[in-house]
Amino acid sequence: MSADLDRPAERPAGTEILSGTGAVARAVRDAGVDVVSAYPITPQTEIVESIAEYVETGELDASFSRVESEHSALSAVMGAAQAGSRTFTATASQGLLYMSEMVWWTAGARLPVVMAIANRALGPPWNIWGSHTDALSQRDAGWSQVFAASVQEAYDLTLAAYRIAENEDVMLPAMVNLDGFTLAHTMQPLELVSETAAHEYLGEISIPHELDVENPRGYGAMTGGEDFWRFRRRMMDAMAAVPDATRGALDDLADVTGREYDLVYTYRTDDADVVIVGLGTMAREAEVAADLLREEDGVDAGVVRPILYTPFPEDEFAAAVGDATPVVLDRSTSFGRGGILTRDVVMALDRPVASVIAGIGGQSVDYEDMARIVRQAEPGETAWFGGEIQ
Amino acid sequence: MSWTGEDTGQQINDGHPACSGCGMILGVRHLLEEAGEDSTLVIPASCASVVQGVYPYTAFDVPVVNTAFAASASTASGLRQAYEQQDEDTNVIVVAGDGGSTDIGLASLSGALDRDDDILYVLYDNEAYSNTGFQKSGRTPGGAQTTTTPTGRIGRQKDIDEIVSAHDPAYMATASPGFVPGLRRKAEKGLAADGISFLHLHAPCPPGWRIDTDETVEVARTAVSSALWVLFERERGGEYTLNNPSVSAFRNPDPVAEYVEGQGRFDTATDADVEALEEQAAQNIEYFGQFTDREVSPR
Ligand SMILES: Cc1ncc(C[n+]2csc(CCOP(=O)(O)OP(=O)(O)O)c2C)c(N)n1
Ligand code: SF4
What we know:
The complex is a heterodimer. By secondary structure, chain A is of the alpha/beta class. In chain A, 41% of the residues lie in helices and 18% in strands. Chain A is built from 13 helices and 16 strands. In chain A, the strands form 3 sheets. A 7-stranded mixed sheet of chain A has the order 3-2-4-5-7-6-13, with helices on both faces. A 6-stranded mixed sheet of chain A has the order 10-12-11-14-15-16, sandwiched between helices. In chain A, helix 1 (20-31) packs parallel to helix 2 and helix 11 (314-321) packs across helix 12. Chain A is globular, with a radius of gyration of 21 Å. Chain B has helices spanning 23-35, 47-51, 72-85, 98-103, 106-115, 160-166, 180-192, 206-209, 216-225, 244-251, 256-261, 271-289; strands at residues 39-43, 64-66, 91-97, 120-125, 171-175, 197-202, 232-235, 241-242. Chain B is globular and about 55 Å long. Residues 45-48, 69, 97-100, 126, 128-132, 137 of chain B line the site of thiamine diphosphate (TPP).
């Protein structure tokens, strides 16, 4: 049906104003993904609604499966990837938790699925706004994870995620995170890559263990203790290859777009005494806080924002922080331990850091709040933005 | 190829580790002979995931994708989608147990039925969770002992066929390892159907049912002759068609007690349990009896 519709053979690059969800969907279109399956959940839904429209209007020659749950969405794209297709799904919050079994399964099956997460808090109580605990709760499942901080990054990182996941040394699924609402639903100008350039950048997908009836093999069968560890060990090595694969993917993308990214983004860190550390949009806002601290307090402040979160780029991160005092703004909770990001930061720096749980569930934290947090934060302590509970 | 290196023409190799007398493996062997080598199996957690063999060996001569317990229908859907995108018409066949189909995987089965994805879904029904040591499933008959119903299951089997039928699949059928030609014919029809098909295979399980390993076929036949297991099929939009073994059984059913007495799992069944099973057989005869005029002969 879709073949009957006219569409331009080439969609040129250009600038458009899109939301974060729109940018991810556009990247999926430009990547020429083959199989998409998803289940609606706020604030992700717009991503797959846009993709469904691309598919139905013939702008994207893909198969889109409307499944009955997130568990099925990820198992469907897993099956499709096992057959050798390039795949995409997206979810958030409860949807990601409902998928969790398949999150592990796809990684263990070494399938380069790409999934976007419009990060949202987990219930109860119900809350549809931003938090990072959904994605961070899956940190150890064997997916690489990147965090976008702008509409442009959401687009660029989605394209790059395919290159990372499909890298022959990696062959692990990849998650692209974008903050629910603050990024997912915010419109910003976006520079697009032409479809041809996107296809050239990604190349043909090649999954070495794609199914082949001529050479039948079983995937995922029972393994004993003499073999199981080998599979996990290989995953560990594959994950260790992610930073290089990411660097390569981002460098090659820079050749196409002129936009350069490092694994860790820094802002005014060269002479910084204090750095604010965060993921995604919070760390963007923190740049304004750093400016304010420099102007009003005379404090040399900067920002360090990991773009690659899993595996945590410890060396780049430590180098970016240098000797500055880190204040971590953590939009996640590990009950009994503090913030999840904070644990990774402590591991990377091996010294006490100030950690503030801030901005969870959509709690508003603007740059003035952040400046105030920096003024009060104590290394070695975990504090909550919002103070004591009355 | 068999493990002796000979090509047996079968898609299941000698030496697979299923229990002797396993009704599931008997049925699946015939099914795969019909399907041929251009097929891909999807198997969730179950006995089937064990009988395929332990890495690095495999008992199957077709590719097998293992998936999570609740995910077989959706994994198969994704595979089919990808094959369609790639213009491949390889058979995509799910082999899943009653637990994985009627309990934890019911939502994904329902989803695939609803989307009418072109897959053959084979539910082999050993009427319990055998792989984990024979616990109760939705398909455990009333009065049957399992490790979680040690004094016998209360209630009756979940009627998965009516649930599936309500989705109006392209083709659906019940089958029995006691009637192999019919089983093979239905597998062939299911594979050829345009859309989703569902094959519900009775699968006596010697260790779980506590029958001797050479009694599988006999017990499977008694289930049919007592009208507890009804052999029928149905094409999209049509009515049930009752198959000959059940047509004969309905005319002159064997006593349910014969079926029950042969199996250790009914050792604690009370008279009331047996009466309830008799009632179930009578209801089967009354309900499916309406469709006797549309009988077809198994080959
Ligand atoms: C999410 C999840 N819960 C529980 C299990 C444990 N489990 C594995 S197989 C099985 C029973 C399978 O029963 P059934 O589908 O009837 O197949 P059978 O074992 O009888 O062949 C269970 C409970 C699992 N693998 N995954
Ligand atoms: S336990 Fe039952 S179903 Fe499982 S392999 Fe043995 S006989 Fe077959």
